[in-house]
Amino acid sequence: MKAGARVLLLPAAALMAIFFGAFLVFAAVGMLSCAPGTPGYSAPLTLGNYLRFFSDPAGLRILGWTVVFSLSLTAATIVAGYPFAYLIARTRWAWVRNLLLGVLLVTFLCGSISRAYGWLILLGRRGLVNEALMWTGLIDHPLALIYNVSGVFIALLHFTLPYFVLTVFGAIRAVPSQVEESARDLGASALRVFFQITVPLTLPAIVGGATLAFSLAISAFAFPLLLGGGRVRLISNYIYDQLFVAFDLPFAAAVSSLFLLVALVILWGFFAVERWATRAVYRRAG
């Protein structure tokens, strides 16, 4: 590798060093002990905090629930987001495409806290959603849409959708519409063209968008805190409680390290699927 290429790799190497350096610091702090009566910590180094988490049914249940919830949300993001991305990419009217893209981009101007409070207003017992459903006669009494899993799921789905849609949109636009038209001219139905041509050719982007959606979902903090009402707890909320309620920094660091390790393993699985999908697309095109 030439010297110039090595220089270009320095920013990425520095970023990775900071990331893994922080991970090592967390892992090391997790092997310390909480000083009794204080928020500090002291030696010696032990694996007590890690063993304590593995012997805690509540913590393990929250970690497992976080993974299941995040994967379910990722699946819902794919199901809801891909048709939307396809609509934007294949619409014949430029003004419709620009309008929908503008709506997506506007969502990035709102922070997670403001979004969470917005959904509290929309999904409340006297919120816009319940009022609209009662006005149309679809329900007789307000639905419980907040302070439960439903409210957190809806708000997080709204949060992850723009990231997924914008990721997949470019891939769909890159598929020549003439390919789809040729398949239809040869007798293939629109549904068959969609599932046997468009979806396979954009599979790497789908996996990439799903990876991004999963990363956002598994690290969510504000949405379960505000919309869950204490009834929906993800692992980030569990770690927060160890820090600011129990004041047990070493245990929080140990849980954070284990959580990060689990997340990295799952993300590695996503990346492996993406590499496989990319090779499959190239083989199909060749």
Automatic annotation (TrEMBL):
Question: Does the keyword field hold Membrane?
Answer: yes
Xref: InterPro entries: MetI-like, MetI-like_sf
Its transmembrane ranges are 58-87, 99-124, 144-172, 193-223, 243-273
Q: Which residues form the ABC transmembrane type-1 domain?
A: 63-270
Keywords annotated in UniProt: Cell membrane, Membrane, Transmembrane, Transmembrane helix, Transport
Localization annotation: Cell membrane
Q: Which Pfam families match?
A: BPD_transp_1 (PF00528)
Membrane topology, from the record:
Multi-pass membrane protein
Q: Which Gene3D superfamilies match?
A: MetI-like
Family classification? Belongs to the binding-protein-dependent transport system permease family. CysTW subfamily.
State what protein this is by name: ABC transporter permease
**UniProt organism field:** Pseudomonas typographi
Taxonomically, what lineage is the organism? Bacteria, Pseudomonadati, Pseudomonadota, Gammaproteobacteria, Pseudomonadales
